[in-house]
Structures are given as C-alpha cells and as structure tokens.
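Throughout our pipeline, every protein is held as a single compact record rather than as scattered files. The remainder of this section carries one protein's record, kept here as part of the documentation.

===
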Amino acid sequence: MSETTTPATTTPAIPTAASTTAATTSAATAGGVELVVVDPATLIFAANVRVDARLDAGFVNSVREQGVLQPIVAHRDSEGGLVVRFGHRRTLAAIEAGRAQVPV
C-alpha cells in the first residue's frame, strides 16, 4: 500500500448511565474475574471520557471485520450496569462498526 491517505475520523455519541442498561448475553468466571459478552451500546461511560475519540476509518473497519480482540475492562455500578474503565475507543468503534457483541 504505497498510497498515502488521511484517515477519516468520526465521533459517535458517548453512552451515559442515564441512556443505557447492560444486557449480558454470556458469562464466564476465572480466578475471580468475570468475562461477559455484551452489546457495546449498553456499556456506560464515566463523565470524564475525552470528547474526541478520534476513531479513524481503519480502526473502525478492523473492529467491524475482526471484532474487539482485547476485552474491554469495566466494573459494575450499584445498579448492575457495566462502566467502562479501559477500552473507550474499542467500545465506540464497536458501536460505530455495528458489532452486536464485545468481550468485557
């Protein structure tokens, strides 16, 4: 690929606690760590998430084709929702790519 292009960037809407409820589709527990597969649109973002996620087209296409390869790190809030700690860009890319499930 010798052609140089400027990647397109997008900024999808960031989910908040008021707009989402985590829906777990499967779960496994190993060593006290729970691994679940959920709809990325149900994950909750804390208020201090950067405004511009800078999702370039290549990153979104990678997530669209291969999925999220590294699980998103989250904790459960008092209502059982999953709040993202690490993996905000992966979550937003999965939403933008139309992925139905991501590992958390």
Q: What stands out?
A: The chain has one domain: 9-103. Residues 57-66 form the longest helix (10 residues).
